[in-house]
Amino acid sequence: MNNSLSPKAIRELREETCNPLGPPQVTTDLSENIILTSLDDLHNWARLSSLWPLLYGTACCFIEFAALIGSRFDFDRFGLVPRSSPRQADLLIVAGTVTMKMAPALVRLYEQMPEPKYVIAMGACTITGGMFSADSTTAVRGVDKLIPVDLYLPGCPPRPEAIFDAVIKLRKKVGNESILERSKTEQTHRYITVEHNMKLVFSENTGEYLNKKSNKSITSSKLQKVEENINNKVEESLIDKEFK
């Protein structure tokens, strides 16, 4: 049957069956060949499509964040490329509990990130201190006391789908920004301080245990006697073996 058809007929038949919409045609309309936009929209579109998060995590929330790198969630399709250097990142997802010992390192990483930069507070421990807010004396009661936060992501821990939702909301915020109005959102001071209602507890330790002598210790004179007794027993056992 195919031998009876001409090559042109066979080509038309293939186009109708394989591509029913027809081949694409280049139009000459001005509205379909030229894109008109503003500098703000073009700049914001480029930034929201290439957010590079910093690989930073301190506790169990980072396990949920690390799951996004795998093939099941694949957050690379949002343009999120994880970076190990703060000088190449513009998004800081604070995943996990922040202690007072880690706070200076976190502030240093944030200050090393180039502008414009954004922060997502992920998890209850990051936002308010979480389960450690009542009794712990080292947990920071909210990372917003150290660095400015753009978006709060509650949960303990939040699922990877929740991180997607937070990134989508952050992309909307980035898309509505203006270059001329950026100075209004800049940080005016380094720390956002809030007084903690902590009770001061003074130690009653006087250091006497350092000078206390142990009753189980052996003096040097007794130690020599113990060594002599051990040597005598070893010699007696060797003599018994010789006679046997």
Can I get a quick summary?
With 244 residues, the protein is mainly α. The chain has helices at residues 7-18, 39-48, 61-67, 103-112, 124-128, 160-175, 208-211, 220-243; strands spanning 91-95, 118-122, 151-153.
How are the SSEs ordered, and which strands pair?
Elements: H1 7-18, H2 39-48, H3 61-67, E1 91-95, H4 103-112, E2 118-122, H5 124-128, E3 151-153, H6 160-175, H7 208-211, H8 220-243
Parallel strand pairs: 1-2, 2-3
Helix pairs in contact: 2-6
The shape is elongated
Percent range for β-strand residues: 5-15%
Low-confidence stretches: none
Mean pLDDT: 76
- Count of helical regions: 8
Task: State the helicity in percent bands.
Answer: 25-40%
User: What is the CATH T-level topology of the domain at 51-178?
Assistant: Rossmann fold
Roughly how many Å apart are the termini?
110 Å
**How is the largest sheet built, in terms of strand order?**
1-2-3
Question: Secondary-structure element sequence?
Answer: HHHEHEHEHHH
Structural class: mainly alpha
Task: Please tell me how large the radius of gyration is.
Answer: 35 Å
Oligomeric state of the chains?
single chain
CATH class of the domain at 51-178: Alpha Beta
Question: Can you summarize the main beta sheet?
Answer: 3 strands, parallel
CATH architecture identity of the domain at 51-178? 3-Layer(aba) Sandwich
Q: How many beta-strand runs?
A: 3
Fold and architecture overview:
- The protein has a domain at 51-178: Rossmann fold, CATH 3.40.50.
- The chain is built from 8 helices and 3 strands.
- The chain has a 3-stranded parallel β-sheet.
- Helix 4 links the parallel strand 1 (91-95) and strand 2 (118-122).
- The termini are far apart.
- The protein is mostly helical and 244 residues long.
